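ugh ok fine here u go
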Amino acid sequence: MIGRLSLMLGGTIIGAEFFLSGCKSDPEKINNLFNEDDLALLNEIGETILPKTATPGAKEANVGQFMALMVNDCYSPEEQKIFTNGLTTLNDRCKEKYGHDFRTINADQRTALLTVLDQEQKKEAKNNQHAVHYFRMMKELTLLGYFTSELGCTKAMRYIPVPGKYIGCIPYRKGEKSWAT
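structure:
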């Protein structure tokens, strides 16, 4: 009886701790560099670059996840620093200009801010071919992530499944070569 009671109470305490640990104020880390808030911001930046029209937008293709993966896994530490610092800089400039962070301003304000950043990075690239600007990285990753995603390939571009439809039974004629698998 006492053993069952302690088991029930122990389960209750462990269960309560499990539920309380779910009440975190910090956003969950996605990888070494980014958390959930960063992904949401990256998705909004991507959506501003490639908005939803008759085709799905960058946010629906989850380009934020793609950008976080590419920066974490493929970029050098110097490039990672440029990108992550740039994410902070973009949000800080937004707060200076509009008084709110990027995720809370309207679409016209987002477009205006990103247009200014795009002009800056083009000017910087013109003056120094080897310059690496954070917005150019974001823009390139948005395009790459979108147009290599399933949504981008099948909804924004013409898509023909290759090698074609599945045909389970094909008649065999004596002397023909068999199909490679």
